[in-house]
């Protein structure tokens, strides 16, 4: 539980920003997390964080600062989800009986997944496909990709997020 409450004028400004820009804040969090209910939680957490820990200063009236707080909390949540999925997926596989990787059903399923991924990759815009390939298959940093493509690292981040969303919607057999 927070140990102190922020400045009353600051709290009113925070409330005003969250009320006036709620849709924008939810959009930021939903785009990162891919889930509206988790986005609601992130926006709520950001409000509580800023309400109880409001330092004095000119940032208080900056919507961009609040957007940044929401974005950072959403990214933390996304990373936590990703880590938990990897953690629980490995526990699940270890607890199960060994998979027969040579069974006809398993081979057919893997080929279908590969086909879906290839088709989805081909459907991506060339710059997006290039950035995705460089980042995930050749371990290039976003900064290197940005330099090579002549765009900002922030734009590379947006491109990769769009690609993850597009590929994350793949139907898996």
Automatic annotation (TrEMBL):
Transmembrane segments: none annotated. Residues 21-82 form the RNA polymerase sigma-70 region domain. Keywords: Sigma factor, Transcription, Transcription regulation. The keyword Transcription applies. Residues 115-167 form the RNA polymerase sigma factor 70 region 4 type domain. NCBIfam families: sigma70-ECF (TIGR02937). Belongs to the sigma-70 factor family. ECF subfamily. This is Sigma-70 family RNA polymerase sigma factor. It comes from Cupriavidus pampae.
């Amino acid at each position: 539980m927070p140990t102190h409450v922020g400045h009353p004028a600051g709290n009113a400004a925070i409330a005003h920003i969250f009320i006036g820009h709620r849709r924008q804040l939810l959009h930021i969090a939903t785009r990162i997390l891919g889930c509206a209910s988790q986005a609601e939680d992130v926006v709520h957490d950001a409000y509580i964080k800023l309400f109880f820990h409001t330092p004095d200063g000119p940032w208080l009236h900056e919507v961009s600062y609040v957007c940044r707080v929401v974005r950072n909390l959403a990214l933390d949540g996304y990373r936590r989800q990703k880590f938990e999925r990897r953690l629980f997926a490995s526990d699940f596989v270890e607890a199960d009986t060994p998979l027969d990787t040579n069974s006809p059903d398993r081979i057919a399923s893997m080929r279908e997944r590969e086909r879906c991924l290839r088709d989805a990759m081909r459907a991506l815009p060339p710059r997006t496909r290039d950035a995705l390939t460089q980042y995930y298959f050749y371990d290039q940093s976003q900064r290197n990709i940005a330099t090579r493509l002549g765009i900002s690292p922030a734009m590379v981040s947006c491109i990769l997020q769009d690609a993850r969303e597009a590929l994350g919607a793949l139907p898996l057999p």
